[in-house]
Amino acid sequence: MPERLDLQLARMAKRACEEAGISKRIIGVSRFSNEEERKHLESFGIETIKGDLLDFEFIKSIPQVKNVIFLAGMKFGSEDNLSLTWAINTYVPALVAEHFKNSRIVAFSTGCVYPLVTIGSGGSQETDLPVAVGEYAQSCLGRERMFEYGSKKNGTLVSLIRLNYSVELRYGVLVDIATKVKNDEPINLAMGYFNIIWQGDMNAMVMRTLVHCSTPAKIINITGPETLSVRHVALEFGKLLGKTPKFTEEEAPTALLSNPRLSHSLFGELKVSPRQIISWIANWIGYDNKLLNKSTHFEVRDGKY
Start-end ranges of CATH 3.40.50.720 in the chain? Predict the structure, then answer.
């Protein structure tokens, strides 16, 4: 059964230590609103600490560690509670950057901080200036700036992961498209192209990013090398699910795309191809297996998620 991203990363770190024959303290920090997830982590020998990251007193109680992977963030429904979105995406990173100033920090960001680019451009590169459209993207850029500030102020070694997009069997752009195909719902083609990466491949890259942390903070795009077409992917799901996709609007000449040349030069080729993922997801959805039922809103072009 697929797991949440933070659970997968924790388990991957644990397995890596076991295979290397070394003993490391691995700690998962979260609100743990789902107690079963907490028990699941602990069953693999991973320590857990439950608390609210908006509470600086709680953050100060977290033990100091050598390596930190920061995944906290808010996207879903961000337009409905913008102050909370900014608090989680910007205020919490400032607190974490200060508390863990002597650690290596890998912090998740998003490709949404880039502007829309032309389809044949190859995607935005790390050296491109961000143009964060909408308050969600602006708050994520704020997250980056807080870690960058901590890196410069305290000499903290930091990597910022601009991810665009991670997919698995229960969640992601491909699941959104496949679900619409299966349910005979129209698919909006305005944002007609996208990048993806299998979550397992992404996790492996993120873990290895720890050795590339630097000051000032190092930015790394993580995604797959292919620019995928929403229309073509929907038609492929249609073949696999025995459906005829329905479409609205037409493809715009620009899309939110990232160039992953740097990460692939550092970490090598991906193990799982888009074609394989599409096949897995079609099979998963075809058997009515569990989904997370959280839309990625990948079709949004105005930054209002």
Answer: 66-286
Q: How far apart are CA 135 and CA 196, in angstroms?
A: 23
Helix 135-154 to helix 92-99 angle (10° resolution) is 20
The answer to whether the beta carbons of residues 126 and 221 sit under 8 Å apart is yes
pTM score, whole prediction: 0.94
* pLDDT, tens digit, 9 for 90 and up, residues 206-246: 999 999 999 999 999 999 999 999 999 999 999 999 999 99
Q: Phi and psi (nearest 5°) for 20?
A: -80, -10
Residue 222, SS3 per DSSP: strand
Write down the CATH superfamily of domain 66-286: NAD(P)-binding Rossmann-like Domain (3.40.50.720)
With residue 60 as reference, give the H or E element that holds it.
Answer: helix 56-61
Reference 126, options 142, 109, 139; nearest CA is 109
Nearest to 30 by CA among 118, 114, 92: 92
